[in-house]
Structure formats: C-alpha cells, structure tokens
Specification:
mainly beta, eleven-stranded antiparallel β-sheet, 5 helices, 407 residues
Length: 407
C-alpha cells in the first residue's frame, strides 16, 4: 500500500508541474487602448508584478509584456491589474525597522495595481516584500489616492499607528449604512476593506452593483456529501498474557461524512481547509481454543465512532474542469458505545471500553467540474484502548471516498 501511495504522490507532483505552466484566457490593453485577447500565464502573484508572460493563441509563442507597454491586463473575470502612477509610502512595517516619522514619506512610482473592487468607489492594493498598501478611486475623480496606514516609533521609542485611512474613508464613503462606528472598527485588511467598499457601492447603486463579497463567499465555501468504503484492521498485543493477542484482520464497512470546505482566498484558490464529521464502524469476532485445553477463547470488538478530520488541502489544476488534490488531516475520533471483549468459556469475561483518540491521514483525489470527486485516504495507527506497559493496540483504515458538492 505504501508503494502505491508513493507512486500516486509522484504522479500528482508531476501533474502539478504540468498544471503550473498552463496559460489561462485573458486580455491586455496596450498604450493605444487596443484590447488584445490572449492567454496569460497566471503565476499567482503574491507581490504585484511588473511584467507577465502571454501567448496570442494556445499553441503560440510565449511573449512578454511589461509596465511600459500595457495599461491593463486581466485573467478570466477573477484577476485584473491596472497600470497607474501612484504616490506610495514605502516605509517598512517591520517592528525592527520602523520610521520615526508619523507622516507618510511618499515616493512616486508607476505600478500595476491589483483591482479588488470596482464601482462608484474602487479599491486597489499594492504589495511587495516589505509593504502592503491600499488605494481608493472615486468615479467622480481621476486620482488614485493612497489610504494611509503607518506604524512608527514615538520619541519614547514606543510603537504607534497613524490610521489616517479611517478619516479618508469617512470623508469619501458617505452612505447611510456606513457609520462612524463602522469606520472606527475597520481593520486595514483585504477582507474588511472589500466588505466596506461593497457596502458603499451597493448603497450608492443598489439596482446594478454586484456585491463581490457575497459572490466570493459563495465561491469559497463548499458543502460536500461524502460516502465511503472502508477497509480497516485492528490488532492487540499483550506482552504478559499471550492469549489476549489477536489480529482481527481486514474488515470492510461503509461510512458517511459531510464536509464543509473553505477555499482560502489567495494563491489562485489552490488551498483549502475543511472539517468533515464522519460516521464509521468496525465489528469483528475471533474464536480459538485455549492452548492445551478445550476451552474456547472469544475476542470481539464492536466499534462505532464519529471521526472529525481537520484537513489542509492543496489543489493541482489540470484544466478548467479537472483538478487533482492532496490533503493532510488531523483526525479527532469520538467513540460511541464501543467496547472490546475477551472471554474464556465459563471462566473469564473482560470488557474494556474503547477510548476516543487522534491520528493522522493522507489523502489523494480528483475533482471534476467542482461537483464530483473521488479520494483515497490512508490513516495512521490509532490507539483504541488505554495503553499499559504490556498492551499495544493498533487500528488502521484505508478509505475510498466519493464526493458530491451540493453547495
């Protein structure tokens, strides 16, 4: 089984290398305001790019566009960069390298700004290794203005914050649904600012504005029904009482889980986290004769539990419909009415309650059209009895999981 998993992992990683070089449908606008449809290599820029690779056709030659010859470019409907001259404070936010000046020290740059929200008020972001700054543009103005947030050192060497962006937004985003309290508690983060701008744009133009926060929330949450076939094993080794040693072998069973998955809103939706309450069971009996005796020994296990895998998942895109994934899970196992019974005919009857525990799992899978999936998952060893110096127990499970996303 380990060899099969290794082969599968190698295949997936190879597929990942392939998936990373796919060019996606996009466009760019040149200095003559001519829009060119093309295929752009999305390398999942964390920092704002100053160039990008593209092809005019899927089989065309790879070319490069830069800040100097492109006004705007985008990929599908999810990513858009706008060339703009800006004034930006490049002061470090690193505590060990703070400026002693409270006011921003602006420098002029021409950059590709990433568009976060478009509407009556548009929100942009610029990020590099050292800084992250947000910008606002109103439809009534041609100017893109920096929203000022700056950490600095006071004269007595304490860290303070210049939160000028709150006053800027209070002055710019005038709407009945945006109050002083709303702005006062506003954090300088993507999600909070996007939500505020959505709020304002909806208030300003409620009939036509499409709220990007609601759309993103829908796209980022999946609820999946996941029935499964389990192949499980359980064994006990007792160093002081060999008659209690038993290997129940492999047993087949079925389980059912409901997974709530959240796609992390960065890195091109390639990472997700999930929680998946799952019912599973394992029941088996082993009978044998006590050595040098006609007495019958019975070992029996009745095990039902709710497993709660907490998973980190990485998607590897093949094309627009298909993707592979690999996930690592930490499993919390909550036993229901479960016990292990050891008995010697007419002489001894021992019952031990099975305990809740934890273990890990590694899974590989394929998802089609964001709707249907199949996964194989191997769990590490789990202890089901209170371990002593002389007792060692092992429960393992291998699962084939079918998934259907209904949200």
């Amino acid at each position: 089984m380990k060899q099969k998993l290794l082969v599968l992992l190698t295949t997936i990683l190879s597929s990942n290398c392939f998936a990373q070089i796919l060019f996606e449908k996009g466009y760019y606008i040149d200095n003559s305001n001519h829009k060119v449809d093309c295929f752009i290599k999305n390398i999942e820029w964390k920092n704002n790019p100053n160039k990008f690779l593209f092809k005019l056709t899927e089989d065309g030659a790879i070319q490069t566009n830069t800040l100097s010859n492109v006004k705007e470019f985008g990929i599908n409907s999810s990513l858009k960069y706008l060339r703009s001259p800006i004034k930006i404070d490049m002061s470090s936010d690193n505590i060990s390298n703070l400026s002693a000046k409270r006011t921003p020290i602006f420098v002029k740059k021409v950059v590709f700004l990433k568009t976060l929200v478009e509407g009556e008020a548009s929100l942009y972001v610029y990020e590099d290794t050292n800084v992250k700054r947000f910008f606002i543009k109103k439809q009534s103005s041609n100017e893109i203005e920096a929203l000022v947030s700056k950490k600095y050192l006071t004269k007595d060497n304490k860290v303070a914050d210049n939160l000028q962006y709150k006053q800027q937004l209070l002055n710019s985003l005038t709407c009945s649904s945006i109050t002083l309290k709303t702005i006062k508690n506003l954090l300088y983060t993507n999600s909070k600012l996007i939500s505020l701008f959505d709020n304002y744009n909806t208030c300003s133009n409620p009939t036509t504005y499409v709220n990007s926060t609601k759309k993103q929330r829908k796209d980022l949450i999946n609820i999946n029904l996941r029935p499964r076939y389990n192949l499980s094993s359980f064994s006990i080794k007792n160093a002081s009482f060999e008659n209690r040693n038993v290997d129940f072998g492999n047993k087949s069973s079925f389980g059912l889980g409901i997974e709530i998955e959240y796609i992390l809103p960065f890195n091109k939706n390639k990472w997700g986290v999930s929680v998946e309450p799952t019912y599973q069971e394992f029941s088996a009996t082993r009978n044998r004769l006590l050595e040098n005796s006609n007495l019958n020994i019975t070992n029996r296990i009745d095990y039902q539990s709710i497993e709660i895998p907490l998973s980190l998942r990485h998607y590897l895109f093949i094309n627009e419909q298909s993707k592979l994934f690999v996930n690592f899970s930490f499993i919390i196992d909550l036993t229901l009415k479960s016990n292990y019974q050891f008995s010697i005919e007419n002489n001894l009857d021992i019952r031990d309650d099975l305990i809740s525990g934890t273990n890990f799992a590694l899974g590989f899978g394929y998802k089609f059209n964001d709707k249907y999936s199949i996964e194989i998952r191997q769990q590490s060893e789990r202890n089901l009895l209170n371990k002593t110096a002389v007792t060692d127990t092992s429960f393992r499970a291998f699962s084939v999981i079918i998934g259907y996303s209904f949200l």
